[in-house]
Design a protein that fits this description.
- The structure holds two protein chains of two kinds.
- Helices cover about 25% and strands about 35% of the residues of chain A.
- By secondary structure, chain A is α+β, with helices and mostly antiparallel strands.
- Chain A has a six-stranded mixed beta sheet, with helices on both faces. In chain A, strands 13-12-11-14-20 form a five-stranded antiparallel beta sheet, covered by helices on one side. In chain A, strands 15-19-16-17-18 form a five-stranded antiparallel beta sheet.
- By secondary structure, chain B is an all-alpha fold.
- Helix content of chain B is about 80%, strand content about 0%.
- Chain B has helices spanning about 5-30, 35-45, 45-80, 85-95, 100-110, 115-120, 130-155, 160-165, 170-185, 185-200, 205-210, 215-225, 230-265.
- Classes of the chains: A alpha+beta, B mainly alpha.
- The interface between A and B is medium-sized, with 31 and 24 residues.
């Protein structure tokens, strides 16, 4: 278990302030924050590349605040991968074993095993200069995992990968976590957080401003920043089935979503941006739309107008302009229709 | 076909003039050196000895001082300390000093009355008029080239790579030898070759420390002042040719070394 107790660190004009954090063994913790929020600095403190001005870092009941980087057994994978350009893929993965002076035979065996697990055995003898982003990411992961870290720190691991590679890597990370690897993953992307995390922390200006399960943080943001930052509060866990040749997602509360294209899977997440949902007094005439009848439960003024909460089997959060509120004559407890096209639904596979 | 603008033409003409300024005297010297005179110079034992002395003393000076200069360059590239700009200024000082003045300063240091001279004389070495004194004079004026080039090389190595290596369990020493040094190798080699070349061509500082044994620049000067231009010319041509050969060989070796680092992963065990 990792515990950060009152960690503070001044870095020029920027400061990490009074950070308290607990990550249990086997947990997948995502720290969400915009660039410049201090998330990378926090990872570097945990890894030992920097030291805090105050506070303590406890790992497995051992105070590692001032422990040497080499002795911590905390692995970090940097955003730009930091793969050594003057070594082959094999040389990169073997590096931690070579500096520990392990025997040649043991090194070869371990490297091949790690490369097989990461599906990069076919590039072992290649130089790293011409590898793709996905391959570099896997090399960096294999190189860190070969050290059997107690804790794996990932700095924006998905940020520079295209969509298909992202899905592959997410699957890989999920499997690693399932196999017992404790992971702290920092990202600016709420999609990553929702699809991977068991728990989420939101960091802003060097402070963790909210923490909790994915549902807690996104459905009950503690302040406006988290609400705005999260951007999407409309996310629904569904099971997908086929109905009249179409893919349909069904929530626990039996709310049905018609989806675009053929999609399969269970425990899938659907995301809909607050701006993509329309409100009307009458049922929309376009039958292609997902349309649900519900009741307005809350109207909150927001930066651009109003945030309307509609209970329609599930809670829907909708941003609309103040002028539309007047035009539609929206008041609390009024019955309205919410609608959105299937193409606006983002599908994130849970498994 | 794109046509060059007037500006490009002017730049090309000016560049050609500068290039001609460098090439013309050297070409003139080669042209004016007769074959017979040149052959005679090649056979001249005194010329041989002085060229050989110049090459090996400059090489040894560069090699020995690189042991301290390369880590020093790393320190300048990576660490922040209060008087860093001042230290950087001191390193560049030998470049701006008149080299005879540098020789005078060094003579005070290595003569029997000076600190280093006294220490060396305890070991039975008189640094003045001795190859070791020549090496010190060469190093004094040429060290900035190695330090500055190496510092730029280390600065260009992404710090992330060093951090990653530390995180993977390497000690600071291992990181230096397996990551920083191989990645800065090209710049270090350039600095090494420049220091070697600069040391080998040094006249002013060396002539104050040691007229004898005679390094090639001193020999050329001596032949010129005693016998005139025609007598000094073949020795100059010979020295330039040998120096060029040596520089090309060093460059070639350094490129090979770079390839080796890439292909065999800088073995760490």
């Amino acid at each position: 278990m990792l515990r950060l107790i009152n960690i503070s660190r001044q870095l020029g004009d920027f400061a990490l302030k009074d950070i308290n954090l607990e990550v249990s063994d086997g947990e997948y913790y995502v720290l969400l924050g915009r660039s410049g929020s201090g998330k990378t600095q926090l990872l570097e403190l945990i890894a030992g590349l920097e030291h805090p001005d105050t506070g303590r870092i406890i790992l497995d009941n051992e105070d590692i605040t001032m422990q040497r980087i080499q002795d911590r057994k905390v692995g970090i994978v940097f955003q730009d991968y930091a793969v050594f350009p003057h070594m082959t893929v094999f040389g990169n993965i073997a590096y931690p074993l070579r500096v520990r002076r392990e025997g040649k035979k043991a090194i070869t065996e371990k490297v091949e095993k790690a490369a097989t697990a990461m599906n990069i055995k076919y590039i072992l003898e290649r130089n790293t200069e011409k590898l793709s982003g996905g391959e570099l990411q896997r090399v960096a992961l294999a190189r860190t995992l070969i050290t059997s870290p107690r804790l794996l720190l990932l700095d924006e691991p998905l940020s520079s990968l295209d969509t298909s590679l992202k899905d592959d890597l997410k699957r890989l990370l999920r499997n690693l976590n399932k196999a017992g690897q404790t992971i702290i993953h920092v990202t600016h992307d709420y999609g990553d957080a929702i699809s991977l995390a068991k728990r989420v922390g939101v960091i802003h200006n060097g402070k963790i401003i909210q923490e909790g399960s994915v549902d807690d943080v996104f459905k009950n943001p503690s302040n406006r920043f988290v609400a705005r930052y999260a951007g999407i509060r409309n996310f629904f866990r569904v099971d997908i089935s086929r109905e009249n040749g179409l893919s349909v997602g069904l929530t626990e509360n039996k709310v049905k979503f018609r989806l675009n294209g053929v999609i399969a899977g269970s425990d899938t997440l659907l995301l809909i941006k607050s701006d993509s949902i329309a409100i009307s007094n009458d049922m929309p005439s376009n039958t292609e739309l997902n349309a649900l009848k519900g009741k307005i439960t809350e109207l909150i003024p927001s930066e651009f107008g109003m945030e309307v909460t509609v209970e329609a089997g599930e809670l829907f959060y909708i941003n609309i302009l103040a002028s539309d509120i007047a035009e539609l004559n929206l008041v609390e407890n009024k019955e309205v229709w919410v609608s959105f096209p299937a193409k606006e639904i983002v599908v994130i596979n849970g498994n | 076909m794109s046509r060059n603008s007037l500006f490009t033409w002017i730049v090309m003409i000016l560049s050609s003039l500068v290039l001609l300024f460098i090439i013309a005297p050297l070409a003139g010297m080669f042209i004016h050196t007769g074959g017979a005179e040149f052959l005679e110079t090649i056979k001249d034992k005194e010329v041989h000895q002085s060229v050989w002395l110049t090459l090996w003393v400059s090489f040894i000076a560069t090699f020995i001082f690189s042991i301290g200069a390369i880590p020093f360059a790393w320190l300048l590239a990576r660490k922040k300390f209060p008087v860093k700009n001042f230290v950087q200024g001191i390193i560049d000082l030998p470049i701006v000093l008149p080299h005879t003045a540098a020789g005078i300063a060094l003579l005070g240091f290595i003569s029997r009355d000076g600190f280093l001279g006294k220490s060396a004389s305890l070991l039975g070495i008189n640094l003045v008029n001795h190859p070791s004194g020549i090496a010190l004079a060469m190093a004094f004026v040429s060290l900035p080239f190695l330090i500055n080039a190496s510092r730029d090389g280390f600065a260009a190595v992404p710090e992330r790579l060093e951090k990653a290596a530390l995180n993977l369990g390497a000690s600071h020493t291992k990181v230096f030898f397996t990551i920083s040094l191989p990645l800065a190798w090209r710049s270090i080699t350039t600095g090494f070759v420049m220091m070697f070349a600069r040391g080998m061509s040094e006249f002013g500082a060396v002539v104050i420390i040691a007229y004898h044994p005679m390094i090639a620049p001193v020999l050329i000067y001596e032949r010129f002042s005693s016998y005139g231009l025609n007598y000094a010319r073949p020795a100059s041509v010979f020295f330039i040719l040998i120096a060029l050969l040596f520089l090309i060989a060093l460059r070639f070796l350094s490129l090979k070394r770079k390839e080796k680092f890439i292909n065999t992963d800088a073995q760490t065990d």
